[in-house]
């Protein structure tokens, strides 16, 4: 037992050391109310499932040949380093959506287990390792999106983890595993329904953790006691077999070296400045347009609550200049801009789903973010989007502000075609374009979707309008410039 404890302690310490930034970000997700806060449920469910699996008698012969273990372990450890150091940086824009650092963490722990325990024990607990891969959040986000994006959807998503964990823990045979999983689903969904009725204002993390954990513990314990009725109740009723892989000294420094390399990797930054905090900022009405501009059309998209939760809204205001300006159009035609405003009571969700995801921009090339300082201390980011199929370029400026409980992301779009019929990207909420763009980046690299030589044709127009828009919102509140 002491060998098992020492090896797992070694893996745990190196994992915390190698992925300390990842764990801090995950804690921030929980405290920030993000959907991704479910990730700490996965290792807990994995441990509970492993306890049930460990009670079964070991049938395979111990293998003492370490060559295969070392080869597989080395390949997995190197792959975890490549995911963390290379692939993670490719998807910097979608970092909070994909959390590939958590995938690298899973790969590191699994590969270190192969190196220190052997491949046979790894295979014996294969279903547990598959369960632990649910730490990859993208499938969970898609499921929550399809279910409505609210707290109940978040709880149903975590019940999938609980159902799989119960099936693994009690599944001495397929039928028993199915019955256990169905029992867990029934109990968890009952608890979730009760919470929706009696505690509708409970935090998201409560919806994500309480039903699945109660279901796993109650159903697992109940089936254990039922199967052991009339017999002694012992947690482990079989002999603890010795660790087959005894010669691990060559693997110990290898795992340490990879852990040091992983610890040196810095998590990517999206590039946008943190939100401006304004205590008395109000979000109960559309943005007030500055003088010299009028709203020609306004449209509200409620489907964004699937992404940003609760009462989130997307308001599109089509604004037109009252008069033309030869600085921005050689024929002095009045310019048209689109102002898209996302308001949410779940501020952390704005970092999970970037603005690009709201539009069908498959194949469009985006430039690097250019920092812009606006009035009243607002820090914005400007970038271009080039659509080669439509032969148009959109210049965009974006910033976020908050009053502490509610946040608002403002995106102003200008198009280089100044005709009245000029095409602006339409909010669609179609995730397929985003997924296709991710695969393009995976196989072709960032250069495939990067505008490496951007030309900001409407930079001056956007900055002047953005400053005026900020002033129109904050001056009535008495905020000092």
UniProtKB/TrEMBL annotation:
Domain of life: Bacteria
Organism whose genome encodes this protein: Mycolicibacterium confluentis
High-level lineage: Bacteria, Bacillati, Actinomycetota, Actinomycetes, Mycobacteriales
Name of the protein in its database record: Uncharacterized protein
